[in-house]
Amino acid sequence: MKVRFAPSPTGYIHVGNCRTALINWLFARKHQGTFLLRLDDTDIDRCDDKYVQALLEDWSWLGLNFDEYVKQSDRGDLYNDALETLRKAGRLYPCYETAEELEYKRKMQLKRGLPPIYDRESLTLSEAQKAAYAAEGRKPHWRFLLHDTSIEWNDLVRGPTHFEGAHLSDPVLVRENGAFIYILASVVDDLDLNITHILRGEDHVSNTAIQLQLIEALGADPKSLQFAHLPLLAGEKGEALGKRLGSLSIGDLRKQGILPMAINSLLGKIGTSDAVEPYTNLDDLVASFDIDKFARSTPKFALDHLLQMNKKIIQETPFDVALQYIDLPEMDETFWNGVRHNVESLDEVKTWWTICHCEGDGTVQEEDKSYIAEALNLLPNGPWTQNPWDQWIQSLTAATQRKGKSLYMPLRLALTGQEHGPELKIIIMLLGHDLVRAKLQQAGHHAPL
After folding, report:
1. What is the mean pLDDT of the chain?
2. Phi/psi of residue 15, each to 5°?
3. Residue 241 pLDDT > 80
4. How far apart are CA 316 and CA 355, in angstroms?
5. Residues 122 and 172: beta-carbon distance below 8 Å
6. Bigger pLDDT: 343 or 239?
7. pLDDT score of 446 more than 60
8. Tens digits of per-residue pLDDT, 257-277?
9. How far is the C-alpha of 26 from the C-alpha of 418, rounded, in Å?
10. Torsion-angle region of residue 120: left (phi > 0), alpha (psi -120 to 50) or beta?
11. Cβ distance 264 to 192 under 8 Å?
C-alpha cells in the first residue's frame, strides 16, 4: 500500500492541506505502507524554494516523516513520453484559442444556460488553419480527448461515484509555454511510482473522473488505484476557509505557541465518528485511525477549538518534551509544572516566565493600596524553604477581614498584573521572597502604612 501527499510549493502549508497530508500519513502508517512526499512544482512562475523549505520544516516539526521524496520538475521526460503515447492513440489535440476567447465562450454558454464545457472547435481545424494560427505567432495548448462513456468508482468516503464523460470538459494537459498541467503529471507519477491509494479533498472528484480515463489511455488499469475524497474544512459557521488560510498556516500556528500534537490531534479526528480528544503521541493516533470513520458531512475548524486542544496537550506534556518546542533555555521543571495547567499556548509560558523574573507589571486599585501595604507588612521573612502561603493568607484574613475575590484579586494583580493564571500559592514560590516583596512595594507605592 502506498500513498502520496502532493503539495504545490506556491504557498505555505495550512490547516486545510495539512489535514489531507496527515490523513495520508496516518493511513500509510496504520497499514504499514509507504508514504511519498511529492512536490508538484511544474508551475515555474509561482513555485518558490522558500515554500519548499518551509514545507519541510513544518513537516519535521509536526513529527511526520516520509519514506520517499520526489519533485515533478525532475520528471519532465516521463511526461513527454506520456504525451507521445496519447498523441499516437489520438487522445491529444492542439487548441489555439486565447484565454480571452475561451472566457468569452464560457460566458456565452452560461448565458444560454449551458454548462461551460469546451466545444472541441479545434478538432475541426484544417492544417491550413493551424498553419495560419502559427503564422500569427499563436502557440497551441494541448487537450486530452475524453470519451463519452460512463466513469465509475467506489470511493472510500463517498461510496459509489459516477460521472458521464459527455458532461466533462476536455482538460488541458500542456500550456502554450510547454508547461505540464497537474492532471497529466499527477497521473504519470501515480502510475510510475506505484501509488495504490489517493486520499484528497472532494474538490478533486471531477479530476478523478478525468484521470481514470487518462490512466486507461496510458495503458494502465484504472482499478489499480483506490480513491477517497474528503470534505473540505469549513469555518465554525460553515464558511469557506479559503480566504482566511493565510492566518492558519502551520508556521504561523507554531509561532503562536501551538504544539504539533494539538494540530495532529484535532486534524486527525474532526470529520470522523471518533471523539476529538488530545493525543500526546503519534503512535496512539495511528492506532485509532480508520478511513471508514470519515463522514461526508463538512468538518468545521475553529481556532478556539485548537487553542483548547493545545491547552489540554500542554497540561499533559512532560518537561523534557516541552523543552523541544519552547525557546526558554533557562526554564526548569519546577517552573514548567507550575504554569502548564493554566496556559493555552507556549507564548503564554514565555509571558509567565517574564512575569516571574521581573519586578514590574504589577497593578493595584487605589482603594486596595493600603491592603497591599498590609500584605507587605505581614509577608513572612525569607528565604522560603517551605511554602508560606497558608500562613500569609491566614494573617491577612485576620488583619483585614477580607475574603474571596477582595482577598485574592488585589494580590494577583500586584504580583502578576493578570486577572487569571496559576494559583497564587504556586506563583509566590516561583517568584521567591525578594521578588514578591519588590512587586508588592512597587504596586503599593505611596500607600499609607
Report:
1. 93
2. -60, -30
3. no
4. 23
5. no
6. 343
7. no
8. 999 999 999 999 999 999 999
9. 41
10. left
11. no
pTM of the predicted structure, to 2 decimals = 0.90
Cα distance between residue 263 and residue 278, in whole Å = 10
Domains of the chain: 2-77+179-230 (3.40.50.620), 242-322 (1.10.1160.10), 356-443 (1.10.10.350)
Helix 369-378, helix 389-400: angle, nearest 10: 130
* Res. 92: pLDDT tops 80: yes
H/E segment holding residue 431? helix 424-431
pLDDT band at 362 (very low <50, low <70, confident <90, very high): confident
Structure confidence by residue, pLDDT tens digits, 150-209: 999 999 999 999 999 999 999 999 999 999 999 999 999 999 999 999 999 999 999 999
All three cell numbers of 152, joined, read 465509475
- CB distance 15 to 241 below 8 Å: yes
- In angstroms, rounded to a whole number, what is the distance separating the alpha carbons of residues 431 and 358? 9
- 3-state DSSP assignment of residue 145: coil
As a whole number of angstroms, the distance between CA 158 and CA 155 comes to 5
pLDDT tops 80 at residue 448: no
Determine phi and psi for 159, rounding to 5 degrees.
80, -160
Using DSSP bridges, classify how beta strands 150-155 and 141-144 pair: parallel, antiparallel or unpaired: unpaired
- All 3 cell numbers of residue 415? 504580583
- Residue 279 corresponds to which cell in the numbers above? 493525543
Strand 150-155 vs strand 159-164: parallel, antiparallel, or unpaired? Answer: antiparallel
Distance CA 132, CA 110 (A): 30
Question: Quick one: how far is CA 424 from the chain centroid?
Answer: 36
The 3-state DSSP composition of the chain as helix, strand, coil percent (nearest 5) reads: 50, 10, 35
- Please write the tens of the pLDDT for every residue from 363-391: 889 999 999 999 999 999 989 999 999 99
3-state secondary structure of 70: strand
Rg value, the chain, Cα: 31
Contact yes or no for 236/270 (Cβ under 8 A) = no
